[in-house]
Amino acid sequence: MIKKEKLTHLHFYFHDILSGRNPTAVQVAKSAVTDASPTSFGAVVVIDDPLTVKPELSSKQVGRAQGIYSSASQNDVGLLMVLNYAFTEGKYNGSTLSVLGRNSALSAVREMPIIGGSGLFRFARGYARARTVSFNFTTGDAVVEYNVYVFHY
Predict the structure, then answer these.
(1) In the chain, which stretches have pLDDT less than 70?
(2) Threshold 0.85, pTM exceeds
(3) Sequence-distant (≥ 6) Cβ neighbours of residue 41 within 8 angstroms
(4) What is d(CA 122, CA 103) in angstroms, rounded to the nearest whole number?
(5) Contacts of 36 (CB under 8 A, 6+ apart)
(6) Cβ-contact 105, 74 below 8 angstroms
(7) Rounded to whole angstroms, what are the CA distances from 68 to 4, 8, 24, 87?
(8) 47 exposed, middle or buried (CB, 10 Å; 0-12, 13-18, 19+)?
(9) What is the C-alpha to C-alpha distance for residues 122 and 92, in angstroms, rounded to an integer?
(10) Buried (b) or exposed (e) across 77-88, using 16+ Cβ within 10 A?
(11) Count of CB atoms within 10 A of residue 133's CB?
(12) What is the spatial distance between Cα 50 and Cα 61, in angstroms, rounded to a whole number?
């Protein structure tokens, strides 16, 4: 039996924490030019970032963003995002969405493709719109609002 395709809108906040005793984003590699590059070109960061319902880290957690981002541009802050949103609460508990695309991190709003998923998001396709809520230039910590639209069965 073929199920009817549906469109789902998800809204959450992504907390990228590079500072403190328990960072959720850790640089694991860099190139010979990364430290001298104004865009940190060549840096590779592994993440396990909390996803919450509100911009405050203390708000209800609904999942984790797990994967890698890398500084892939020599001319601007352009990140290659390779990650999964792994949902841990509610209807989508145990389901994932996969992101693969460019994040122009300094743009007010940017869009990345959703290229697949698992669980309730099998055969998912769509996009994620990101908007930075806060960014600490000293620590690198950021809170990013996501609106995700996906077609799935």
Answers:
(1) 1
(2) yes
(3) 31, 33, 34, 71, 72, 73, 74
(4) 24
(5) none
(6) no
(7) 33, 25, 11, 17
(8) buried
(9) 12
(10) bbbebebbbbbe
(11) 13
(12) 7
5-20 pLDDT, tens digit each = 999 999 999 999 999 9
Q: In whole angstroms, give the CA distance from residue 104 to residue 110.
A: 6
Which residues are within 8 A (CB) of 87 and not within 5 positions of it... i.e. 6 or more apart?
51, 62, 63, 93, 94, 95, 96
Contact 146, 14 (CB under 8 A): yes
- CA dist 21 and 94 (Å) reads 28
Residues 6+ apart with CB under 8 A from 5: 151, 152, 153
Q: Report the length, in residues, of the chain.
A: 153
pLDDT digits (tens, 9 = 90+) for 17-28: 999 999 999 999
Tell me which H or E stretch contains 87: strand 78-87
